[in-house]
Amino acid sequence: MSGSSLFWVIIAFAVYLIGMIVIGIFCAKDNNSTEDYFLGGRKLGGFVAALSAQASDMSGWLLMGLPGSIYALGTGQAWIAIGLFIGTVLNWLFISGRLRCYTIRANNALTLPTYFENRFHDKKRVLLFISSVTIVIFFLVYTASALAAGGKLFNSVFGVDYKVALTIGAVVILTYTFMGGFLAVCTTDFIQGMLMLVALLVVPILAVIVIGADNILPQIDASGVAGGSAAYMSLFSNGGEPYRAVDIISGLAWGLGYCGMPHILVRFMAVKNEKELKKSKGMAIGWVFLSLVAAWAIGIVGRAYLYPEVLTDGAEENVFIQMILKIFMEDIPVPFIGGLFLCGILAAIMSTADSQLLVSASSVAEDIVKGIIKKDATDKTVFKISRITVIVIAILAYLIALNPNSSIMGLVSNAWAGLGAAFGPTVLLSLYWKRTNFQGAVAGIVSGAVTVILWDYIPLVNGTTLGSVTGLYSLAVGFAVSLIAIVVVSLVTPAPTAEMIEEFEDVSKKRINFDGE
Length: 517
Fold this sequence. Notes:
It contains 20 helices and 2 strands. By secondary structure, it is an all-alpha fold. The longest helix has 50 residues, at 162-211.
């Protein structure tokens, strides 16, 4: 990259980063209560809720992890994207509205752990504690994946040392999350979501124009893909080998995670009214469809466009970055635009990290401190603890991400599985099965989280984990174990109280003042 091009890229990054911090300062003025800080006063509009939920969902995985996997192994890696799209649709259709209503009925719950506590009348606050701890543990890994992606971005674009790059990204995210809370996070996520989508759509189209559509398959063949371009473009081929049923199941299982993601579910809880929620559904589903298709196209087109250069040994995750640099620094020299598109990758990273920091902070301050340790804590105290927690979580995630060889895909995969297995079945059955009780909810959260940890981290078979031996994604196993545990334990323990049944019926029959609470 020439000196003048680098100058314009730096200007683009500076404009973007300063803009995010200004939003944080502006939104800080509207934080008059913990409900404002954690849920934006439940005033989210439909479009902001939609893009905020999906931008915080997809993270750097969408622009780096998924295109990198497809670039390296081919279209077969798209089964994960298919699973995520199905999960997104089902989440918005069947979870969003019902959860929004139930959190109002469940004593105006501000967080997912508080919802569990109120939904199951947990007087001893066991659910509050175990769900909060689970969130903090897995979000540490998830936030680390976002910070690692930011470090790789700055390192790849500017040649800055990975650790220095990691520090810059962490400081900016920490600043606006610390100051502005949920409203700042959602506002920045809306902007970031738009920027991500434009970058995802424009870059592969320009790359195709530059090399010509007819040259894509020959270039892919020339790049040395296993099995040739025919296998590379097949949904049923994985790096030249036939896709196994277990691989397809594992890919589709990613969609199960949606109904257990606290940073996504909290957006449903914060939507202003039912009219805005309906607007959110269509926009969110459309955004996800276009984004996933574009991410697939980046992996495929990037393989042809970057040839004769072939990215290997972890560099595959930089395919989108390298495409942007080549297009806007060499083929169509408009470095400022290229810089803005690179900010689209930074946007994906920041939009997830900020949400995870805020949800972790709410779990510690609102649920553990105010809910268990100091029940008479004032809003001022909760604010203070929240902001301290944001800093502590960011530092711990930063330490995890210090290894420059960390796989973004691997970190996201582990965190997504843990959260999805622990909370997904509990959220689903709490909304749709009135026989679910407190004991069942505890069994579901604990069994789901423990199953993922055993499956992914504990070498139980000749020094190897069950995940490595079977090839089956831990979320599929953990979700099934959690679901079974909830049903079995709920049926063999006392039935829910009449009051709990009444609350469930109020939500089922829509006897909730959704729009005017």
